[in-house]
Amino acid sequence: MTPEARANVEAWLAYFADLKISPFYLNRAVVSKNEAESEVLPATTAAPSIYIPMSPAAMRAKLQASSPAASSAIPLPVIKPASLFEETARIDGDSLERIREDIGDCKRCRLCQQRNSIVFGAGNAHAQLVFVGEGPGRDEDIQGLPFVGRAGKLLTQMIEAMGLKRDDVYICNVVKCRPPENRAPEPDEMETCSPFLYRQLAVIQPKVVVCLGAIAFQALYGAKQSISRLRGQWLEFRGIPMMATYHPAYLLRNPNAKGEVWDDLKKVMAHLGLKIPSRS
Ligand code: SF4
Fold first, then answer.
1. CATH number of the structural domain spanning residue 120
2. Based on the domain organization, do 161 and 31 belong to the same domain?
3. Which domain holds residue 60?
4. Does residue 69 share a domain with residue 37?
């Protein structure tokens, strides 16, 4: 194996090991126990010293750009992201603290370049209700906390209208670093960062997940679905009931949609057994 091919394989192994799914990778690659011990495991254990921060998507792009001879010499596994990351829901002993440690001073995608803070998430680690947004904005990037700007204040009002406090729920985003100029996260950035979100949800195991906006909806339900068509309906994310609704930032621009969001939140309240105000 050439040094470049070995570096590529080691980068894959480091990425999977980082997500705590290296055993899953080994099984899919149909590597025999002896081969795994003699070939693959040393590469995994050596990962910290040779770690190259690159997602599978970025790796695929790099390989496609390389020469045909080099590409054909590197037998990369064919992996569908949805099934790949299902395994992250079953990490023994996982915790929010461990996920934050695994993120570390993350440079796995380009969003690290202009961030001030990694905005991991905040709230009740045992919350029955989790709100998932798109990504940090300017205020969140400065404070290191999710939903603390204008849209965040509106979200707080929505939570309080449900009869809850922010500390009762958990709030996080699909990507943990602010996209420049508040642009939407790119698909490869979502693909790279969303496994941490999946692990957060697997640890918290809320009774309901509320997707705020199209990006969160795409990350948890699939890229080809329309939030305007499916908002307000009960969906599911890995066994957790899920409701999609509009992002508070959208409501700031389109206040007429507040009634639709409140209708969605009332369904969530009913599911959680919360008292719905009689005037609404
Ligand atoms: S957005 Fe996520 S994957 Fe990208 S650098 Fe930040 S923490 Fe890492």
1. 3.40.470.10
2. no
3. 3-79
4. yes
Nearest CA to ligand 1 atom 8: 106
pLDDT in tens, 210-244: 999 999 999 999 866 788 999 999 999 999 999 99
Cα 160 to ligand 1 centroid, rounded to whole Å:
30
Q: Write out pLDDT tens, residues 36-55.
A: 333 333 333 333 333 333 44
* 89 lies in some domain: no
- pLDDT tens track for 157-174: 999 999 999 999 999 999
Buried b vs exposed e over 210-231: b needs ≥16 C-beta within 10 Å? bbbbbbbbbbbbeeeeebeebb
Torsion angle defined by CA atoms of residues 175, 152, 246 and 203, in that order, rounded to the nearest 10 degrees: 50
CA atoms within 13 A on the CB side of 99: 26
Ligand 1 residue neighbourhood (C-beta within 6 Å): 103, 106-109, 111-112, 118, 175-177, 189, 192-193
Best residue for ligand 1 mutational test, from 15, 19, 106 (most atoms within 8 Å of Cβ): 106
pTM listed for this prediction: 0.72
